[in-house]
Structure formats: C-alpha cells, structure tokens
Amino acid sequence: MIILLLIPIAQAALLSSAITFRHGARASYYKYSWDTATWPQGLQELTPAGMRQHYLNGVQLRQRYIIDQSFLKPNYDSTEIYVRSTDVNRTIMSAESLLTGLYPNGPKIANANLQKAVPPIQINGLPDIQAKLGNYALPIKRQPIPIHVVEMKHDTMLYAFGDSCPRFDQLYNDIPNTQAYQEKVTEYINSGLQAQVNEIFNTNASYEDASNFGDTMVCELFDGFPLPEGVTYEIYMELIGMYNYTNTYYFTPEGAALSSTEFFKTIIQQFNMTILNEPTVKLSLYSAHDTTLAGFLIFLGVWDGWNPLFASTLIFELYGENGGYFVSIIYNDNVLTLPGCVEMCPFDEFVSIIEPNLIKNMTLGCQKQKPQ
C-alpha cells in the first residue's frame, strides 16, 4: 500500500503523475501434484486479497492526490485521468479495484431524468430498484471508469516481453546459452538443491521447474496455504532467489530497452505537454505485471534484485517550482535516485539520462535479427 511521503522540495507544485503497478495477489500459474491450494476462479486469476490490496492503493492515492494536495477533482473527470491495462483478467480487475478506492462516489441523475433513465424493455420490479438507487446512477454509488486495453500481440508498452516483440523472443531463447545461466544451473545441481527438490516433490525438476515451484509457493503462502511438506524456509528462499533470476534474466541492456521504451516515451511526452501547457491528463495509471515493473527498474538502474511484490507501485511525479521542473520517483514508499541525478531530478536531466537508452524505432527494434 502507498504511504504518503514528504517531498523534499519547498512549496513545489505537483503538476503531473504517471503510475504503473503490479496486479494484486493471484492464483498460481501452474497446478502440481503436491499443490494443496484451491483457486475458485482458476489459475492465474486475481484473488479477493488482491482486489483488497488495490482498493487500498486507490484509497491512498485519493488521500495523496485529492484530499491532501487537491491535485485531482473529488469525483471522476475524464479529462484528468487515463487508465490502461494489459489484456489480462488480473490486471484489468486490479485496475478496477484501485479505481473503486480512488473514486468511491459515482454520478447522480437529475430528478427530471429519473423516469427517462430506463432501457426500452420491460423491467421487473422497477419501482423497487429505482427506490434503492435513489438519484445515484449505479448501486453503491459506483463510478465506471474506462480502462484501455491493447491486445497482447500488439502491446509493446506494458508487455514487450511477450508476442508483441519477436526480438525479445530471440533474447529469451538465447538465455540458456549464456555463461551466467549455465553457472546458475551448475550451482543448482552441485549445491545439492536439485536433489533435495527432486526428493521433496518426487520429480526431476530442472532449474526452470524449481523456480516455478517458488512462484507457486509465493501465491499459496499469501493465500494462507502452508509450504509443502519437507520444504524448509531456507529451501523456499533458495527457490525464490531462482525465481528472481528467471523472471528478469532477459533484461539485458537491449531487453530492458525493448521492454521500457514505449512506456518512458509516453511519460516524457505527458510531462512535456504539461510543461508546455498543452492538453493532457494529470494522472495516468498502468496496470501490469511484476516483470513489467522489474524491466522498468532495471532499465533505470535502480532495481534491488527482488521480484516486485503483489500490488507494487512505481510512481513518477512532475513538480514545478520557480520556473523549474523536477521528477520524483517512488517505488513502494521508497524515493529512488537515478544514477547521475538527485532525488528530485531536474526534468531535463531526467530526460537526458533516459532518452539515449531508448530505442528510436520500436518496429525495427522488435524485428528478429538474422544469425551472424
């Protein structure tokens, strides 16, 4: 959950914000024979705990941007906010949950229009329904907000490590041939961890299999299920370390640039338009994945090596003071400092640090390269 931070710049005015976040707690990706967890909505889906996480994120964003700073209007205004999600149930539902906390009060209908606000069909029990609604358009004062989605095979902004970028597939497929990967596999075998895993799970687990076991256990522990019999905390942490690696090993400098370019181009454009007083939103929200956030953090050179937790939040804020503009970056309550800059990084320096590493043409950058 987001906690308010004191921005270390006197009287600076918040002008624009762009936030990307990982979806909330989910069911595991895979079902194993040793797996005792039950997931009512199926594998990979957002859990009720994940919904609550993002509702609370939304409540805190409301506190930060509406109550404390009067940055946004109290109720939804389509000119102020833009929301986008990857084309995945759990990210779309996470965005919905967050928005419920950010804008808890929906619109009302004028008295003169109450009798008109019905569809051209017969509605059973209409008087009772209308009485319960009162003047609110929807039950529980709900405020619908559009969440924009791009089909995965075209999403190079929030999911460039998927089918949208064939070059990324090449980088991914090359990983097993790298010395770093082979050293990890050798360590997994020679340390005796593979033998322990095979005995515990009665299987022949590759390095990738074992890292996926770790991810499954993260989901199960979060939802209250115990560690599998025979798995000590030390073994669990070894598997989590492996998952930290396999979930990010393709973010070489080129991989990180492919996964981050469209996102950072969009943020820079939003902030530039704000500075130039051109029409743009005040707040943009992007609902994505742990891999998405890890790629961005690695691209910026500020990743701490740990896979982003459920509902992790990465905030970019533009501030203005005395004709100058500054960018603050906050990741899960921690103010980040870009290499070569300070906490409140002057906007021009922020751009000069990021732009040289962006891919100028993503269409060309995502094309497969011919073997040399």
Automatic annotation (TrEMBL):
<comment type="similarity">
    <text>Belongs to the histidine acid phosphatase family.</text>
</comment>
<dbReference type="InterPro" id="IPR029033">
    <property type="entry name" value="His_PPase_superfam"/>
</dbReference>
<dbReference type="InterPro" id="IPR050645">
    <property type="entry name" value="Histidine_acid_phosphatase"/>
</dbReference>
<dbReference type="GO" id="GO:0016791">
    <property type="term" value="F:phosphatase activity"/>
</dbReference>
<keyword id="KW-0378">Hydrolase</keyword>
<dbReference type="InterPro" id="IPR000560">
    <property type="entry name" value="His_Pase_clade-2"/>
</dbReference>
<protein>
    <recommendedName>
        <fullName>Acid phosphatase</fullName>
    </recommendedName>
</protein>
<dbReference type="Pfam" id="PF00328">
    <property type="entry name" value="His_Phos_2"/>
</dbReference>
